[in-house]
Structures are given as C-alpha cells and as structure tokens.
Amino acid sequence: MINVSENISENGNNIKKVIKGSAFSIIITLIGLLVYSIILSYTSVSESTIPTIVIIITAISILIGSTISTSNIKKNGIINGMFVGLIYIAIIYLLSSIVTGNFLLNITSIIMIITSVLTGALGGIIGVNKK
Fold it and tell me: How far is CA 30 from the centre of its chain?
C-alpha cells in the first residue's frame, strides 16, 4: 500500500534538493565566470571565446549541482536533474535580461536552455547511480 504522507514528504524533500542544487550551480557559475574574467583581463585570451566558455561553465555548473542534488534520492534522478537545469537557466535568464534590459530569445539563449536541461538530466542520472 502506498503511504501518501511519505510520498508528500519525499516530494517536498526532493524540491528542496533541486532548489539547493540550482543555487549551488549558480554559485559555481559565479566563481567560474570570475576566474574567466580575471583570465581575460590579465592574459591575451581573445574575447571571442566568451560565448563558448560561458556555455562550458554553465554545463559544468549544472552537472555538478544536479549530481549533488540527486545523490541522495533513490529514483527520478533524470527529472530532478532536469528541474535543476530549468530553475538554473530561468534564474540566469531573468537576471541577465533585467541587467541588459533585453528579454529576447536568440540562438544563444536556446542553446543555453537545451544545454541546461540536458546537462541537468545527465547530472541527475549520475547522482542517482553514484555509490
């Protein structure tokens, strides 16, 4: 027999883990972008690398955050990981849109959304299966 209160408690706990994973991903991104900005400032690295490096930092951050957030759950890692990616990209998109005053979706935005969801799903799979 299914225990409804146990399922509700488990779902609430998973939501907290997804939010924590998203927050952790954002913190990793901020650190990664800070390091990259220092590298750009003090070396001869070309600014043309910015879009590629931002996507790489985003993917690594979400992979780590979704792996951590799903490491202690028993099932639905792919879905929880995807939610980490979705929450992450929604927050980043809103913040960057507010800062730039530009709420347009372009090819870079679409690539970031797809990368975030797929990387979150991969991290969720890794987290659930990690022993």
Answer: 12
